[in-house]
Known about the structure:
12 strands, 283 residues, Cobalt-precorrin-4 Transmethylase, domain 1, flat
Amino acid sequence: MARIKIADKAGACYGVERALELAWTAVSGTSDDVFTLGPLIHNPRVVSSLDAMGAHEASAVDEAAGATIILRTHGVTPQEEERARAICAHVIDATCPFVKKVHVAVEKLMEEGYQVLVVGESGHPEVEATLAHAPGALAVCSAEEARALDLGPRVGIVVQTTQSLATLESVLKAIDDGAREVKLVNTICEATSSRQEAAAQLASEVGAMVVIGGRNSANTTRLAEICRSICGRTFHIEQPEELQRSWFEGVESIGITAGASTPSSQIASVVSTLEALTRRECR
Ligand code: SF4
């Protein structure tokens, strides 16, 4: 049987556990409808189990009028929050406190007169919510994008909490021309950096890596990219049923990591499926 090792830091982070607790408490305390604004977290399996428990995904605040609404972990725009407080019976704010810090940081940079850049993926809910807290701010996700911008003499930067340090450094290098004042508030979350470091370390020690988490999860996708750059046999899965025995033929050790929105129960089910698969290979 192949040796299976889990990264020292892997799986659900503080912000996700807090959001899930809030959602479970909300659905267990009422028989009324409960909604989450967008997926509470980027983990389709967990979102569908929340739906079965009575916390349904709403694509807009107005779908939850008169009911309880839970603001998602990635944060919402000020306009969405204001609307929710105006038309919903109860508003439960599950925005991760570390994401809230990014909102405070962009607002402060704006007040200080900086041109604000958010290093992160345009279109990602966290980045879109952050941009809405600083009208006029721009999202940038690569050195090429940064070089194409027409920037002024004072630039203030915050970072998507799940962004990689390498992307931040490449953007900084691209815009720092020596003459421009650049103020960085590094808002990469510690849960992100510690999971990325542990995944990279493990990927360098094993013959194959399995990365567990939603394909719509930015931090999980980034973990997979990091692992793949080190270990060619890296597989990103959402559930154990996707595992294939052929992926691990001839592999003596398999590393496992998981995105910040992956509960420990999902990691455990992948480990037991892997054990069964690789045990059969040895027979
Ligand atoms: S990764 Fe960090 S910022 Fe994102 S939810 Fe988890 S603790 Fe919060």
